[in-house]
Known about the structure:
Elements: H1 2-6, H2 11-24, H3 29-43, H4 47-60, H5 77-83, H6 86-122, H7 128-137, E1 142-143, E2 146-147, H8 155-160, H9 165-171, H10 174-179, H11 181-186, H12 189-199, H13 202-213, E3 219-220, H14 228-232, E4 240-244, H15 269-281, H16 300-304, E5 307-311, E6 316-317, H17 329-343, E7 349-354, H18 356-363, E8 374-379, H19 396-406
Parallel strand pairs: 4-5, 4-7, 7-8
Antiparallel strand pairs: 1-2, 3-6
Helix pairs in contact: 2-6, 3-6, 5-6, 12-17
Amino acid sequence: MSMLRRGSYSTISFITRVNIIYRRSISNSSYKMSKRILITDFFSKDVSKAKKTKIQKSKIRKPTEKKKDISNGKQTIAKEQIEKSEEKELKDEKAVDEVSKDEKLVDEVSKDEKVVDEVSKEEKPQDIKNQTKSDEEVSAPEFNGIVKDHPDNYDKFCEKFNFNKSKWVDSLNPEQRELLRLEIESLHITWLAFLHKELTKPYFLKLKKFLKSQSGKTIYPPANQIYSWSQLTPLPDVKCLIIGQDPYHGPNQAHGLAFSVLEPTRPPPSLVNIYKTISNDYPNFEVPDPKKQPGGGNLTKWAKRGVLMLNAVLTVEAHKANSHANQGWEEFTENVIKNILEFHKDDALVIMAWGSPAQKRVAKFKMASNKDHFLVLKTVHPSPLSAYRGFLNSKVFLQCNEFLEKHQKDKIDWGLIDGNIVK
Length: 423
């Protein structure tokens, strides 16, 4: 076969010489017959297939002969074998034997190549256009034209509303920077972008000085949880606003969300009535059982689903209800509500005002022009002193979801136990 590749003699001449080799070695018939069949099989292939096989063999087969120096220094070992005597032709027979072995190897490789081709077809990547379309289908959600690329990544949000936190912090004087350290570190960026101007107003700086003067007392909630409502419910995610009054003033209770308490504290009476109302609206609602799991009054799951539970006053001294009232928190939280209404003016928003104080706060805002986008649900406070006068059968949670669904927004899951979906 090496002679065929080098083109020294024609195919017919080569066949003639090979047949001579086999006739002279006919005594070893079994060996020769196997070789003759292989050679016949090879030359019975069509020309294109033979060429392909020859190319494949040239790629995978190691040469069986090496160039040797002879008297003229130019001829190859293959050409010398043809010109030599019958003794040299016997060596060619070994070369043919090697070719036959290589043929088998080529056949095996060809089969493997077919398998690889089939696998390649199966693993062929999708068309780029289709892939792009798929990526678009699973892209991050948008809010007011801003893509939420990644949790806690609101660069585009700040860019749209022209807020640069670093520059704003640099613009503060040393006293402001010291007084507002908690707000700088704790307020979620979406809220800080809208509230940063409020923080430098005289009333708020006065409030911060008051809180600093109370540093020797026990204050609830802990400082790092005063603004947890902003971290758990970013401004663009707000679907429902529940207005509270002031934080619980006992240990392991207040943690920055109105009506919510930390474990292992059991649900306070007002929250128990809230659970009863949800059960009336959704019979499948499973009330957290403190006997199975300590606590049962933590509403963090609601906050993560778009329910902003905001007290009018954000801090309180231990065991002294309303002790931080009229210090400036009321003005600040009213500004929070104002920004919610402005941000969601063309969106669907539900406001739950339970009790007279909450309803008076809502009345300060003119929402008549946007009544199609805002739903204000007024009822008595869920306290045991008033809940029986209409709160338990108010259907506020059911009405909230019906309104959101009407405006093509996802309903809120009121469930608090894993696997218990309530909406």
